[in-house]
Amino acid sequence: MDTKEDMRKCGQCHKMVAEANFALHETHCRRFLCLCPECDETVPREQLEQHREEQHSLVKCPKCNKKVESCDLMDHQSDHCAERLQTCVFCKLELPWKELSQHQLVCGSRTELCGDCGRYVTLRDQAVHELSCPATSAPPQTNSKAPSDATKTSVRCESCMTSVPAEDVENHKLRCPPSDFDDLDLRTFSAQRTPVVRRDLAASLLGGLPEGGDDINTCPHCHLALPIPTLLWHQVKLLQLMSRSMVLLPW
Hints:
Blueprint: E1 7-9, E2 16-18, H1 22-32, E3 33-35, E4 42-44, H2 48-56, E5 58-60, E6 67-69, H3 73-80, E7 85-87, E8 94-96, H4 97-107, E9 111-113, E10 120-122, H5 126-132, H6 134-137, E11 154-156, E12 163-165, H7 169-175, H8 195-206, E13 216-218, E14 225-227, H9 228-246
Antiparallel strand pairs: 1-2, 3-4, 5-6, 7-8, 9-10, 11-12, 13-14
Helix pairs in contact: 8-9
Keywords: Metal-binding, Zinc, Zinc-finger
Protein name: XIAP-associated factor 1 BIRC4-binding protein
GO molecular function: zinc ion binding
């Protein structure tokens, strides 16, 4: 069973009153209460004039001298007064509200150096710049490339005197003609270190070769088949190699 009482709104004080008590309440309101014509607030009838003087009399704002009602003075001073102090968003200086707009227009035009990208950015644009700064928004670069040829270590081949990357030395030795004589037993040669011996070696290496531009002949020592002009160079290098090696052979 619904036990909620019926309610009625009092035309005098605008309050909701139970239907059972409405007649007594309305009589009391009309006799002792009234509505302020300025703010529609219910006040005791004998205090209406005092209420109007305290709340609705015009007073001057001590900052801007504008006349406002007494009840609105605090709101005016905090939210609407042109002389109220406001803080600049850029320099945090407190200024009268009426001067703040022009001040921030000038203050926001000042520039500061971005410590990340080295650019000068206006104070008003710093928030946007922080999101788009190339030094902070660009992904970190990973150096996945192999070292360039300029940074590779080079060594000089003792046979052909050319510079070769260190990691290619072994492959170069296989292609370099003097390296084909590593299996040659130099101990079979005389260890005498006289010009006569060197001349004999040169004669044995170079003698008897036919002349010819494109003819191919075989080295008698390593059995490598080469064009004759290349074979001559090949055997001269072999002579140099053996001459250096003889110094290291035991007597």
